[in-house]
């Protein structure tokens, strides 16, 4: 393949990273649902009836367990006095106290409505892969209790009901949904619940005059499902402590009572079982989704036919209340039986005598059953058989799809699956009347079967992970080769592709593709397989360039000790990258790194520090200040004092610069005509920018005070806030009229451009961070430059006019290369940039603080809740430091005389060392927060490379037109010339001349 230019390289980087980022979904988040299983039910005597003829399922959407049972202030109390707390759900309480069995149903993450209902009704935990298809769709049909019933009537939200209707045998599930009318309920969500109760009453009323319906209702194996969405809506709107939420609980309780009595009256046979539960809970701030206990604990109360009555606790035995969660529910003397959410599906299927849903992984909670030991043993067996059957089918599918399959050891014997033997053993125990033992064995076998399912689910991981790993490593090698080729050898190295190498790599590709083809893998797999082969082939054929590059880069290393030092440096390099990986979990790592980094100038000897005393000092101060931010809490509390201080700092920095501009930009401006003299016009604009900073500070103080006093945001403040935001971002365009192309001037302009925006969007210490960060970056750019000049001078003896190793050539395999050293030290510059880039994000927060974003700051601009525009503002605030740092690297890139984008390309190649780390850290189990965090870590690291590419273009915009003196003309092909010219100018610069502004 022809040599890729800069744009080609960037495009390849973007395409590769986008495709590979998707790989985690093909590896970790694959749907566990299979079909083709036989179903099982409890094998009763031929004439024995099921425990219940019908079942009523109430799901109070978003009802968390403690709110259902605690004594709470009466929301309807109008006296205004502090009255005794009351129980809001007296009827459901009475079922717990004297009629049925209760417990907490522990839901899994994500605690959302769809997965919650799927667990309750189908008995399966929907996989995270549903993330990629959206919760509302029903991508795969799975079996459910409804599908197993003779007929199911359901009422409620279309989001929930329709997926069970579509997944079932046609005509089996009736779904009565409110659809569009729901819009009218926005004022009072309890109407969603009353609508459902009314519809149920209508059904039974019409049965009195409709003989056909009446006969249908009197059959067995029926299910009635009442989906009560009201609590979810009031919870989101008013939070679970609100009167609205509590009042809704009362309403639901009353409805449950009415429906129970209605059904019992209608049938008059005491053959109905009732289940009351919730799909998920609700956090204190009115949200759900993650694994917080408030979200995962839901109430479960079961009563009626076939259900055991309350069991009273006895001294010295386990009561189920040990965790203390239910201590204030007034149920201390009643046994609490917790279940996992999917167990409810098994329980419902058992009660109405249905086959267990074939995808169900729940374990039947025997404590809830009013049944003989033998019935319980048979039920446990059928339950286990269902899960084993799923394992069997899945294993067969896997076997058929793979070239070679290794069975799951605990369920295999001599390489054969030995499920039947286990089952025979359990059946024998039941025949011998050893029911307790058989129940224990069933339970253990079920656990093993679940492990087996997990084994099959993760079977392909090794193969796929290996390919993806080779892909990322290939990218790193390829990118480094390209960098060396373009920026060390200046594209003079030839690629040598032989017949042998070509056929070798193509046969690997063909072999991989045929495996994918045989296993009927998705089209994406071909890309996953293609990239590693492509990258490594490219690296292989350009190995000559790599060798030459090594020769050149290592030219200063001659002795053994030199190699040791070089190895040590490489170790530190990788160490810093690994530290960065860990910093995603522990922000404090930045603190340590900054403290260590403060002494960095010392590495260049005391002579250097003496020569650049002020610069080294301000670097150390900057680092130490930066080290403080990652110790501050990520979740900030509004602090007006802090906002004021940081605003004033920004203002006075700008003011000082304005007053001493000529001095700061160097006395050269008076003697050297090459530097544009700052004009009156540009000073006026900067004055205006300073005015904006002050105005932003005043309006932010006023807005924050007003909001804190709960007086809302005055309209005037909002207008002024927006004006400042927009105007401050537009002002710099006026500089085009009065150009001042000194790079420090440009940095100052950028600093002042974003200052007002940052002040307005600041909650607490971020403003200080912005100030310190900008100053540290400017110091960094100057320090890197000073080091560059200093080391070049020392290497070439005392003659500063000699450029750093410019004329050096290397001869490899008879070919001579001329180069400008993109040296090993440039890799360090890239690493520093990479480190500072991430500190820009982690200094003021972490991943979690972004997802749980606090709206205080954006409320000063958008007081009403509007997720999209508020989110956009928060992202703007996050991106500002990145814009600043990209401008700095762009300037540094030029000042170090490196070809355009060379430093950015080095960063792009090393960033994937982090991506690989996060790739192996992705979790597909655990709380939704854990899973989500690992996915976002991986995606952030993966897109960081692309992001850096974007930053490069941004930096070009921001530093366009900056004059770097005469050497700037020497770019392009004649980099060598540029280096020549620079050494003279640079060494004439007085050390620390402009550091006044950083202190
Ligand atoms: Zn819900």
Automatic annotation (TrEMBL):
<keyword id="KW-0325">Glycoprotein</keyword>
<feature type="transmembrane region" description="Helical">
    <location>
        <begin position="589"/>
        <end position="606"/>
    </location>
</feature>
<dbReference type="GO" id="GO:0071555">
    <property type="term" value="P:cell wall organization"/>
</dbReference>
<keyword id="KW-1133">Transmembrane helix</keyword>
<dbReference type="Pfam" id="PF01663">
    <property type="entry name" value="Phosphodiest"/>
</dbReference>
<keyword id="KW-0472">Membrane</keyword>
<dbReference type="InterPro" id="IPR037671">
    <property type="entry name" value="PIGN_N"/>
</dbReference>
<comment type="pathway">
    <text>Glycolipid biosynthesis; glycosylphosphatidylinositol-anchor biosynthesis.</text>
</comment>
<dbReference type="InterPro" id="IPR017852">
    <property type="entry name" value="GPI_EtnP_transferase_1_C"/>
</dbReference>
<feature type="transmembrane region" description="Helical">
    <location>
        <begin position="868"/>
        <end position="891"/>
    </location>
</feature>
<feature type="transmembrane region" description="Helical">
    <location>
        <begin position="640"/>
        <end position="660"/>
    </location>
</feature>
<feature type="transmembrane region" description="Helical">
    <location>
        <begin position="747"/>
        <end position="764"/>
    </location>
</feature>
<protein>
    <recommendedName>
        <fullName>GPI ethanolamine phosphate transferase 1</fullName>
        <ecNumber>2.-.-.-</ecNumber>
    </recommendedName>
</protein>
<feature type="transmembrane region" description="Helical">
    <location>
        <begin position="462"/>
        <end position="486"/>
    </location>
</feature>
<comment type="function">
    <text>Ethanolamine phosphate transferase involved in glycosylphosphatidylinositol-anchor biosynthesis. Transfers ethanolamine phosphate to the first alpha-1,4-linked mannose of the glycosylphosphatidylinositol precursor of GPI-anchor.</text>
</comment>
<dbReference type="GO" id="GO:0005789">
    <property type="term" value="C:endoplasmic reticulum membrane"/>
</dbReference>
<dbReference type="GO" id="GO:0006506">
    <property type="term" value="P:GPI anchor biosynthetic process"/>
</dbReference>
<feature type="domain" description="GPI ethanolamine phosphate transferase 1 C-terminal">
    <location>
        <begin position="451"/>
        <end position="927"/>
    </location>
</feature>
<dbReference type="Pfam" id="PF04987">
    <property type="entry name" value="PigN"/>
</dbReference>
<keyword id="KW-0337">GPI-anchor biosynthesis</keyword>
<keyword id="KW-0256">Endoplasmic reticulum</keyword>
<feature type="transmembrane region" description="Helical">
    <location>
        <begin position="498"/>
        <end position="519"/>
    </location>
</feature>
<keyword id="KW-0812">Transmembrane</keyword>
<comment type="similarity">
    <text>Belongs to the PIGG/PIGN/PIGO family. PIGN subfamily.</text>
</comment>
<keyword id="KW-0961">Cell wall biogenesis/degradation</keyword>
<feature type="transmembrane region" description="Helical">
    <location>
        <begin position="829"/>
        <end position="848"/>
    </location>
</feature>
<keyword id="KW-0808">Transferase</keyword>
<feature type="transmembrane region" description="Helical">
    <location>
        <begin position="903"/>
        <end position="922"/>
    </location>
</feature>
<dbReference type="InterPro" id="IPR017850">
    <property type="entry name" value="Alkaline_phosphatase_core_sf"/>
</dbReference>
<feature type="transmembrane region" description="Helical">
    <location>
        <begin position="934"/>
        <end position="954"/>
    </location>
</feature>
<dbReference type="GO" id="GO:0051377">
    <property type="term" value="F:mannose-ethanolamine phosphotransferase activity"/>
</dbReference>
<dbReference type="InterPro" id="IPR007070">
    <property type="entry name" value="GPI_EtnP_transferase_1"/>
</dbReference>
<feature type="transmembrane region" description="Helical">
    <location>
        <begin position="613"/>
        <end position="634"/>
    </location>
</feature>
<feature type="transmembrane region" description="Helical">
    <location>
        <begin position="562"/>
        <end position="583"/>
    </location>
</feature>
<dbReference type="InterPro" id="IPR002591">
    <property type="entry name" value="Phosphodiest/P_Trfase"/>
</dbReference>
<feature type="transmembrane region" description="Helical">
    <location>
        <begin position="719"/>
        <end position="735"/>
    </location>
</feature>
């Amino acid at each position: 393949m022809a040599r890729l230019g800069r744009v080609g390289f960037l495009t390849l980087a973007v395409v590769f990273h986008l495709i590979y980022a998707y790989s985690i979904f093909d590896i970790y988040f694959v749907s566990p649902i299979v079909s083709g299983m036989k179903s099982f039910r409890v094998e009763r005597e031929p004439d024995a009836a099921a425990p219940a003829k019908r079942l009523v399922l109430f799901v109070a959407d978003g009802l968390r367990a403690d709110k259902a049972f605690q004594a709470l202030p009466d929301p309807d109390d109008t006296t205004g006095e502090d009255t005794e707390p009351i129980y809001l759900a007296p009827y459901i309480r009475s079922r717990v106290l004297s009629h049925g069995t209760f417990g907490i149903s522990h839901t899994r993450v994500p605690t959302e409505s769809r997965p919650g209902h799927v667990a309750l009704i189908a008995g399966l935990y929907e996989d995270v892969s549903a993330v990629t298809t959206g919760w509302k769709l029903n991508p795969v049909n799975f079996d459910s209790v409804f599908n197993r019933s003779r007929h199911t009537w359901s009422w409620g939200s279309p989001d929930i009901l329709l997926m069970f209707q579509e997944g079932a045998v046609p005509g089996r599930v009736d779904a009565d949904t409110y659809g569009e009318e729901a819009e009218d309920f926005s004022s009072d969500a309890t109407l969603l619940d009353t609508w459902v109760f009314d519809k149920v009453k209508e059904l039974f009323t019409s049965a009195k005059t409709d003989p056909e319906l009446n006969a249908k209702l009197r059959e067995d194996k029926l299910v009635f499902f009442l989906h009560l969405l009201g609590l979810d809506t009031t919870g989101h709107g008013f939070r679970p402590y609100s009167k609205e939420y509590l009042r809704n609980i009362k309403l639901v309780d009353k409805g449950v009572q009415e429906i129970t009595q209605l059904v019992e009256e209608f049938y008059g046979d005491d053959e109905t079982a009732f289940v009351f539960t919730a799909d998920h809970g609700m956090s204190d701030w009115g949200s759900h989704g993650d694994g917080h206990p408030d979200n995962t604990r839901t109430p479960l109360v079961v009563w009626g036919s076939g259900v055991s009555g309350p069991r009273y606790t006895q001294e010295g035995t386990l009561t189920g209340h040990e965790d203390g969660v239910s201590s204030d529910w007034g149920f201390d003397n009643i046994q609490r039986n917790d279940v996992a959410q999917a167990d409810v599906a098994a329980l419902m299927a058992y009660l109405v005598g249905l086959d267990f849903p074939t995808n169900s992984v729940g374990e039947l909670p025997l404590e809830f059953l009013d049944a003989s030991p033998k019935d319980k043993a048979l039920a446990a067996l059928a339950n286990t058989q269902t899960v084993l059957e799923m394992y069997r089918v899945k294993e067969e599918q896997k076997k058929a799809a793979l070239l070679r399959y290794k069975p799951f050891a605990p369920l295999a014997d001599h390489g054969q699956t030995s499920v039947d033997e286990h089952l025979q053993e359990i059946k024998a125990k039941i025949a011998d009347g050893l029911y307790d033992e058989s129940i224990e064995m069933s339970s253990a076998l079920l656990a093993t079967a679940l492990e087996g399912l997990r084994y099959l689910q993760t079977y392909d991981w090794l193969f796929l992970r290996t390919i993806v790993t080779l892909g990322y490593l290939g990218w790193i090698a390829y990118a480094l080769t390209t960098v060396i080729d373009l920026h060390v050898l200046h594209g003079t190295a030839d690629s040598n592709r032989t017949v042998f190498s070509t056929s070798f790599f193509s046969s690997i590709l063909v072999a991989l593709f045929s495996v994918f083809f045989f296993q009927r893998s998705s089209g994406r797999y071909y890309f996953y397989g293609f990239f590693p082969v492509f990258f490594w082939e490219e690296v292989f054929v350009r190995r000559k360039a790599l060798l030459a590059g090594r020769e050149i880069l290592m030219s200063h290393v001659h002795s053994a000790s030199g190699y040791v030092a070089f190895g040590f440096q490489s170790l530190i390099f990788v160490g810093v990258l690994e530290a960065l990986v860990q910093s995603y979990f522990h922000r404090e790592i930045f603190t340590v790194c900054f403290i260590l980094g403060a002494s960095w100038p010392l590495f260049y000897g005391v002579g250097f520090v003496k020569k650049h005393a002020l610069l080294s000092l301000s670097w150390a101060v900057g680092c130490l200040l930066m080290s403080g931010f990652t110790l501050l809490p990520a979740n900030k509390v509004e602090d007006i004092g802090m906002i004021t201080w940081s605003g004033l700092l920004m203002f006075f920095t700008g003011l000082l610069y304005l007053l001493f501009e000529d001095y700061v930009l160097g006395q050269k401006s008076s003697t050297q005509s090459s530097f544009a003299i700052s004009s009156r016009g540009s000073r006026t604009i900067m004055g205006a920018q300073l005015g904006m900073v002050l105005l932003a500070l005043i309006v932010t103080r006023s807005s924050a005070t007003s909001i804190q006093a709960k007086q809302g945001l005055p309209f005037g403040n909002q207008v002024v806030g927006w004006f400042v935001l927009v105007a401050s971002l537009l002002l710099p365009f006026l500089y085009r009229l009065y150009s001042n192309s000194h790079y420090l001037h440009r940095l100052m302009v950028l600093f002042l451009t974003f200052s007002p925006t940052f002040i307005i969007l600041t909650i607490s210490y971020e403003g200080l961070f912005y100030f310190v960060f900008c100053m540290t970056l400017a110091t960094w750019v100057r320090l890197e430059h000073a080091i560059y000049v200093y080391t070049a001078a020392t290497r070439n003896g005392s003659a500063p006019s000699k450029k750093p190793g410019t004329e050096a050539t290397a001869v490899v395999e008879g070919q001579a290369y001329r180069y400008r050293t993109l040296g090993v030290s440039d890799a360090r510059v890239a690493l520093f940039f990479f480190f500072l880039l991430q500190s820009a994000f982690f200094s003021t927060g972490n991943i979690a603080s972004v997802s749980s974003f606090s709206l205080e700051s954006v409320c000063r601009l958008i007081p009403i809740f509007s997720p999209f525009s508020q989110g956009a503002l928060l992202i703007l605030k996050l991106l500002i430091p990145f814009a600043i740092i990209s401008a700095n690297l762009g300037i540094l890139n030029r000042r170090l005389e490196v070809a355009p984008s060379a430093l950015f390309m080095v960063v792009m190649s090393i960033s994937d060392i982090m991506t690989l780390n996060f790739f192996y850290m992705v979790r597909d189990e655990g709380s939704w927060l854990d899973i989500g965090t690992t996915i976002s870590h991986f995606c952030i690291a993966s897109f960081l490379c692309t992001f850096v590419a974007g930053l490069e273009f941004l930096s070009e915009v921001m530093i366009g037109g900056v004059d770097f003196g005469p050497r700037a003309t020497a770019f392009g092909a004649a980099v060598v010339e540029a280096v020549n010219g620079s050494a003279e100018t640079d060494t004439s610069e007085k050390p620390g001349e402009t550091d006044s502004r950083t202190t």
